């Protein structure tokens, strides 16, 4: 009798211990692997730069909150984003009010690391807050320097690789900048007027001497006034402008209507605020700018 009682007691104890272990296993919070550096970028252009600067390192994991072909202006963070931000070691954002929703979510996620702003040292547009600074390749180079310095600070052990990769990337961006300037040299300055969906190309226009016009403002969420649309239609007709484009993200209805009323055909798609999927025409920053330049130059022919 005594043995049976003891046996029951011991079995119950073992069963309880198992339940305790299982319960604790399930409720153990996510423990970060010491050897992985988790990098989160707000949008795909920063993801591309981060990938190129960290090329060849296997301990880096990079995620972009806004996916390819999605609009960062109107992006609504989802609960999974909060988890990704909380678990990050470094976060890169553009700044200049580009990703307000994500900035709010970083604050509420409990993230304890450093948030780096890519536009930190960029000379900004004087008349209004315009976040689309990357379209001037010289600004994109400042982005790369900002990210490179951040990686060297956060992970000094691999500094040599960050410096080497960033130097290569900066060289390819310097070449891109020269190439764009040469491409546009072929087009007379008075012909270089482009109409597109939203005001995303001020920095591009200033860097490469092209005038961009759009019916809506800085954000794809802005509404065009009837007066602005009428003015733009008159301008297109009076100046015989052919270069009318849609963008990969913004709603194209209004620009299609303008093209219809001015009897222009749309000359293609420009990539403004997000890269394309890997199989699309703009899977990284260099190919995005090359695609835009080819598309614009073709319309000027
Ligand atoms: Zn935009």
Helix tally equals 10
Tell how many strands the DSSP assignment holds.
Answer: 8
- Rough shape? globular
How is the biggest beta sheet arranged?
Answer: 4 strands, parallel
Strand arrangement, major sheet:
2-1-3-4
Proportion of residues in β-strands: 5-15%
Small-molecule components bound: zinc ion
Q: Which residues sit in consecutive blocks of at least 5 with pLDDT less than 50?
A: 19-33
Tell me the CATH superfamily of the largest domain. Nitrogenase molybdenum iron protein domain
Q: Assign the CATH class of the largest domain.
A: Alpha Beta
Q: How much helical structure, as a percent, in the residues? A: 40-55%
* Radius of gyration from the alpha-carbon trace, in angstroms: 25 Å
Oligomeric state as shown: single chain
Q: Could you say what the CATH architecture of the largest domain is?
A: 3-Layer(aba) Sandwich
Tell me, rounded to a whole number, the average pLDDT.
Answer: 89
- What's the CATH topology label of the largest domain? Rossmann fold
Structure description:
The chain has 301 residues and is α/β, with parallel strands linked by helices. Helices cover 48% and strands 9% of the residues. The chain has helices at 2-27, 44-53, 79-87, 100-109, 137-154, 159-185, 202-208, 226-238, 253-261, 285-300, and strands at 37-41, 60-64, 90-93, 114-117, 193-195, 211-213, 246-247, 269-270. The strands form 3 sheets. It has a 4-stranded parallel β-sheet with strand order 2-1-3-4, sandwiched between helices. Zinc ion binds at residues 73, 132, 198, 200, 220, 272-273.
